[in-house]
């Protein structure tokens, strides 16, 4: 089979105006970025159509080294639905350069189920990430300048909490000192970098429902505290307008296409382990305006991305999926079942049975939100009928649905079984109102405890002294009614990445709480998770090159 990039290059792409025409977006409405990419003005959103369309969430079991194929499944499902004559759009996040040059090499789907043009989407695309990075760091520069210009006066801030961001994986930047080299270079201070997908600007951007809403929430961002312990915001700096200007083009969602010319919105890119893990509300609502079936995904396993999609994004944007797809593979099941990596391609029904414990916990969690769940089994050539039939029968016993997905190797044809199952569930299963994991009136501790116990299966939480002090500040300032966004390892239900399958008898240790007043949630940092990733021993950057004018190494 051809590589992802070979498939990408041999796919006959349509001009972007033709993609827009498929879903009744006039050519004059598009803001073209070359022949194959365009931005679509968000003012085309029709809230009545949003309510009538069918939103489908794609999530996955706990990720492993073997991969799961969630984005490939999302794209593949949209291809399958299109094959069945449904007016379908897929809405995804933008890839980050950090993982592209670090571990993954790309994040635009795979095989014959990709969003294209793959190279542009995986690299600089329309410059949205650069705009978000610039906006974030512009705030940093301006607050540092405020501190410098007001040094020695009663206006000087007691504490600056706003850090810097960069869209690379660079562990050396996690903790830095600034302002060194004499008074002309500023005031010496401790600071650090997060990766751009963890920026509060990214979250504000993804939740914004208009340019005005974007500005209003940027104003609320807390950058520091005064000597009388009051929050000092972007509004206090008087720069919200300038920051909004940097984002005025980026806020318009990006329209591209799939390997079978299905329309795709790709916009916003927060990670699900250190941020909220969903694409922008504007892109989702544009897709729902112009499509009858909209497939979207939430990052990593359902305990992270799906939990945040349902508890935070859906609550904020008044959205609700008509069905949820939970992606599984035999290799991942066997790893969760204790089978060593070198043997996961061999038949092992006992490993499958043990690994299904992980699936069951995710399934129970999604059903607790009121969702009807379809298990999408990404098939490989070494999978046996016995293993697949066992999983299918197991799913039926657990009140879930099952479908085999071969979109990676066969495109839309390979996803027809999955698409038919999803349509059947939407048309024949009663749609239930979303049941959130916690109430906004719960205290922050109650919210964290409920997620830990209900979603992770833990027995409780432990707050560090730093987190306890921040909790007092949260309560004093009246932010205790905000939802919580937990930053936690993606590899385990616990905060210990080595505990595969279904961890038991554990507590979640919260090292820090961060007030994201602009984004409208509290970030709770669990265990030793880092909001600036590091690079692996052999980064993907060593494989990426340009040969005879063509990019190699993206996958």
Describe, in plain words, how this protein is organized in 3D.
The protein is an alpha/beta fold and 555 residues long. The protein has three domains: 4-126 and 250-428, 3-Layer(aba) Sandwich (Rossmann fold), CATH 3.40.50; 128-246, Domain 2, N(10)-formyltetrahydrofolate synthetase, CATH 3.30.1510.10; 444-526, Formyltetrahydrofolate synthetase, domain 3. The chain has 20 helices and 25 strands. Strands 1, 2, 3, 4, 5, 6, 14, 15, 16, 17, 18 and 19 form a twelve-stranded mixed beta sheet that branches. A four-stranded mixed beta sheet has the order 20-22-23-21. A three-stranded antiparallel beta sheet has the order 7-12-13. Helix 7 (128-149) packs across helix 8. The two termini are 13 Å apart.
Provide the fold topology:
Elements: H1 4-10, H2 16-22, E1 31-32, E2 38-39, H3 47-52, E3 54-60, H4 70-83, E4 88-92, H5 97-101, E5 109-110, E6 113-116, H6 118-122, H7 128-149, E7 159-160, E8 164-166, E9 176-178, E10 189-191, E11 193-195, H8 200-207, H9 211-219, E12 222-225, E13 231-233, H10 234-237, H11 240-246, E14 254-258, E15 263-266, H12 281-290, E16 293-297, H13 302-317, E17 323-328, H14 330-336, H15 349-368, E18 373-378, H16 385-397, E19 401-405, H17 407-410, H18 416-428, H19 444-456, E20 460-463, H20 465-477, E21 484-487, E22 507-516, E23 521-526, E24 545-547, E25 550-552
Parallel strand pairs: 3-16, 3-17, 4-15, 4-16, 8-11, 17-18, 18-19, 20-22, 21-23
Antiparallel strand pairs: 1-2, 2-14, 5-6, 6-14, 7-12, 9-10, 12-13, 14-15, 22-23, 24-25
Helix pairs in contact: 4-18, 7-8, 9-11, 14-15, 15-16
